[in-house]
């Protein structure tokens, strides 16, 4: 039996992918949110060195093309396919999923990485949903639901398909998902930091409940990638808030005293959640620094009642039952 290494805070995505190269070999992987200068892009780049196919997504087709070109420049042998996907639109999610379902290949791993930038301004989507929750939870829920046939098509006696949710330590902040405002969001009850925390709590609950609901047919995991200064953090509002918290220096650079990770370090835990065979018997696990850290899950995110309630509410919102 192979012996796999222990990973640490400093471990990079490339190191994790190299350690699990045999597990990645032959796999078809879809990663949402793969813009350059983000952990989704770095995940795609390192996985593309070993995988059979990497499907990258984004709502901006030009930026998506730049990501593909950058990956292929670094990994000339990479088999990369672009998929335009706007997770803030349920209609667009259905269109993108229908395209994936025409692909000849099964899907071994789905990585729900994309998220909306947290902004103070309250914004509703065309579906009447709060933008952060739509992009980070409801859209991915529907997308995952529609891709279940593709995921199940990759299953064998030796392999269980995986779904990975990139959550955050923010899952442990606040009081969890507000089940009233998720269905009927209002500007009066909107706080953009709390909205972000709710989405990340929903990610953890989704991993727990998807693993349970599938009855062992799909293994789902969630994770905290670490504090990373990616493009999603480089808005004026985010920079101002992080300066006030001391996370950034007055001139806008990461403060070394706040345990920032580089993008390669930040993407490491995603790769581990997607491919570490040691997780096979731990569906629903939450990872930090590329290792299981279930003790770090907030009580409101480990509560099976909350998990099932979120599942049921989200099914009501999308108007479809999630079946396996």
UniProtKB/TrEMBL annotation:
It comes from the Eukaryota. One of its GO terms (molecular function) is oxidoreductase activity. Transmembrane segments: none annotated. Keywords: Oxidoreductase. It holds the Pfam family adh_short. The keyword GTP-binding does not apply. Belongs to the short-chain dehydrogenases/reductases (SDR) family. This is Short-chain dehydrogenase/reductase family protein. It comes from Mycena venus.
């Amino acid at each position: 039996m192979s012996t796999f290494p222990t990973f640490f805070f400093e471990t990079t995505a490339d190191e994790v992918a190299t350690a699990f190269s045999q597990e990645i070999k032959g796999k078809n992987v879809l990663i949402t949110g793969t813009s350059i200068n983000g952990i989704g892009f770095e995940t795609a780049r390192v996985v593309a060195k070993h995988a059979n196919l990497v499907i990258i997504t984004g709502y901006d087709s030009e930026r998506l093309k730049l990501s593909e070109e950058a990956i292929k420049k670094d990994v000339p042998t990479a088999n990369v396919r672009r998929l335009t996907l706007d997770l803030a639109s349920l209609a667009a999610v259905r269109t993108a999923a229908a395209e994936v379902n025409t692909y000849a290949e099964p899907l071994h791993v789905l990585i729900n990485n994309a998220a909306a930038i947290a902004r103070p301004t309250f914004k509703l989507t065309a579906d009447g949903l709060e933008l952060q929750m739509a992009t980070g939870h409801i859209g991915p829920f529907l997308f995952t639901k529609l891709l279940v046939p593709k995921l199940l098509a990759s299953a064998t006696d030796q392999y269980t398909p995986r779904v990975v949710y990139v959550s955050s330590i923010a899952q442990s902040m606040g009081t969890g998902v507000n089940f009233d405002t998720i269905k009927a969001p209002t500007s009066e009850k909107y706080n953009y930091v709390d909205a972000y925390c709710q989405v990340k709590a929903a990610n953890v609950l989704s991993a727990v409940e998807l693993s349970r609901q599938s009855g062992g047919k799909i293994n789902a995991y969630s994770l905290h990638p670490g504090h990373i200064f990616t493009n999603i953090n480089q808005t004026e509002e985010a920079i101002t808030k992080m300066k006030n918290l001391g996370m950034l220096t007055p001139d806008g650079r990461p403060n070394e005293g706040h345990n920032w990770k580089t993008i390669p370090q930040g993407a490491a835990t995603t790769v581990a959640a997607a491919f570490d065979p040691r997780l096979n018997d731990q569906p629903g696990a939450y990872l930090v620094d590329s290792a299981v850290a279930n003790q770090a899950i907030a009580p409101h995110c480990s509560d099976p009642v909350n998990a099932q309630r979120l599942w049921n509410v989200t099914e009501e919102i999308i108007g479809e039952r999630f079946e396996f």
